[in-house]
Amino acid sequence: MARERRKPGTDLAVKPVAAEGMPAAGLRIRLIGLLDEVLAGAEVLAEAFDLIEVSSAYPCRGASRNVRAYLQVRLKSPGA
């Protein structure tokens, strides 16, 4: 019995900051959970970090209802 491959989820509502002229180094974080939980987690992280890159939400394998998303973040610059 073949498993049905689900399409990746929509883009996360949290958008990265403009990173013009800024190095792309930083932390890489993977969030896994229900879509609403991943969205809420990304929003909380956006308060503590500058988001450099935010992936779409991809479905986890198997019959799981969870999704995963990947964020690249950097500590907020002073005064931001």
* Mean of residue pLDDT values: 81
Largest sheet: 4 strands, antiparallel
Query: Which term fits the overall shape?
Result: elongated
Compute the number of strand runs: 4
User: Helices and strands: which structural class?
Assistant: alpha+beta
Oligomer: single chain
Q: What percent strand?
A: 25-35%
Number of contiguous helices: 1
N-to-C terminal Cα separation, in Å? 53 Å
Instruction: Name the poorly predicted regions.
Output: 1-6
What does this protein look like?
This protein has one helix and four strands; from the N terminus they run βαβββ. By secondary structure, it is an alpha+beta fold. Strands 1, 2, 3 and 4 form a four-stranded antiparallel beta sheet that branches.
Which secondary structure elements does this structure contain, and how are they paired or packed?
Elements lengths: L26 E7 L1 H14 E6 L3 E2 L7 E9 L5
Antiparallel strand pairs: 1-4, 2-4, 3-4
